[in-house]
Amino acid sequence: MLGGGGSILAVPLLIYVAGLPAKEAIATSLLVVGATSAVAVIPHLHAGRVRWRTGLIFGAAGMTGAYTGGRLAEYIPAGILLTTFAVMMLATAAAMIRGRRGAEDKPVPHELPIFRVVIDGVTVGLVTGLVGAGGGFLVVPALALLGGLPVPVAVGTSLVVIAMKSFAGFAGYLHTVTLHWGLAATVTVAAVAGSLIGAKLAGRIPADTLRKSFGWFVVVMGIFILAQQLPTQWRTSPALWAVTAATAVAAAAAIAVRRRQHHNEPAASSAHPGPRPSSTPAPPTTRSR
Questions:
Q1: Burial (CB count within 10 angstroms: exposed 0-12, middle 13-18, buried 19+), residue 18
Q2: Sorting pLDDT into bands at 50, 70 and 90, what band is 268?
Q3: Partner of 20 for a Cys bridge, out of 25, 101, 204, 228, CB 3.0 to 4.6 A?
Q4: Distance between CA 93 and CA 248 in Å, rounded?
Q5: Nearest to 140 by CA among 115, 125, 159
Q6: Do residues 62 and 135 make contact, with C-beta atoms less than 8 angstroms apart?
Q7: 159 alpha carbon, distance to own chain's centre
Q8: pTM
């Protein structure tokens, strides 16, 4: 439904519920998300919500970055990978909730420029390979916020990209981890079933609601993963959670105030469309013969 969220859910599920080591969970999530995205793109394709040129170029560039990231992950501690994953989730969520200002006045592109697609694809692919994120929470904002595609179209196109990058990142991890294939197959089948239902719902939800829901969903999961990386004495500290709650309330209030100001700006500008005409008559013009 969101064009992302598979890895955001799969990584915590495999680590904190199934009890897999972090790097094995990341590798398994890449397999699960890749297979799920490949199946989930079919309903979006039938609904005309896939930009094939953009998706294939982005995906090909992302595969290069994803495979490289999968090989580099061997040399990076698991805690750093998960912390980086969570921080990127929160930054991306903030951008999605805020939205793309001025997008209403700009024409919707049919396809994005190749150079931008390649650069974004390699960058997002590298992140995919490193932290096991299929990239939906990065690809959808890249297509919707930077590229200007409508969110439902960005969602459909992102699934093509995610499938390609996830399989490339998974190939990079196969050199360093051993998978629990039975568990991977079980999670994949369940995720595919859910993705087919979500794809049907995506076209029935307003784009603005879909974008904000995506953002808040990523916020919740990002905070959860980040909290799990803290030392035990910190996670159980009431003072820490009080400060976290206060910060969340303050951030929500700031977003509400900015949104209200943004909505009031058009009203204020329409109330005073321009300077009032002067009551003093202008001096007569003279013409020279």
A1: middle
A2: low
A3: 25
A4: 14
A5: 159
A6: yes
A7: 12
A8: 0.61
